[in-house]
Amino acid sequence: MEQDDPAEALTELRERRPGAWELLQPGFRRVPLRLQVPYVGASARQVEHVLSLLRGRPGKMVDLGSGDGRIVLAAHRCGLRPAVGYELNPWLVGLARLHAWRAGCADSVCYRREDLWKVNLRDCHNVSVFLAPSVLPLLEDKLQAELPTGARVVSGRFPLPTWQPVAVVGEGLDRVWAYDIHRGGPVGQAASGPGSASVPGVPGSHAG
Asked: Where is region (Disordered) located (predicted)?
């Protein structure tokens, strides 16, 4: 599988006409410029791909920069529990809670208004992120320092810059990458788990 160029994907993303919710980011005033991440909602296919790489795994699931909460809600529905979303924008947190209430899951999922950079991830075993390439190097440091052994990270739209994926699903902006945390070795270097897609050039990867 030929890897898509992240630069081309970023250009395509920037050319999209933003919706109303993508323009409303009041929390940005409290976040350093280099850590700011504009909100662009995940597509249905992106959500499906994230779940395909997390479904059936035990432990807490968190979405960092959860936006309107669609990934968290879908994760809860497919059995990933507890499912928690962290989002700084209060309007998006409110929208996420509204969606959960309409789905009859208001008491089952959790959306917290918190800066994702300040969230403690030490009890998180399943993490999804749809963030801008500019912040991914810093995110790698945070994930590697805090996540427990056995945790899985799924990154949408853009891959983590220095980690080796154990699975890749989808094409173009719908592509997602999975990375596993293992004891005594580099992140993402161990054999991939059940349901992983083949990753050319990755030792131990296999077709799911």
From this structure: 187-208
Selection from 173, 157, 170 nearest residue 199 by Cα = 170
CA-CA distance, 60 to 133, in Å (whole number)?
A: 25
In 28-123 the beta strands, taken as DSSP E runs, fall at: 60-64, 83-86, 110-112
d(CA 127, CA 119): 12
Contact call for residues 83 and 31 (beta carbons, < 8 A): no
Maximum C-alpha span of the chain: 46
What is the rounded CA–CA span in Å between residue 148 and residue 152? Answer: 9
Question: pLDDT for 7-39, tens place per residue?
Answer: 555 455 445 444 444 434 444 344 444 445 567
- Residue 16: closest CA among 35, 53, 34, 43: 43
Which pair of tokens denotes residue 107? 């008491």
Print burial letters for 28-66: b (CB count within 10 Å at least 16), e (below 16).
eeeeeeebebebbbbeebbbbbbbbbbeebebbbbbbbb
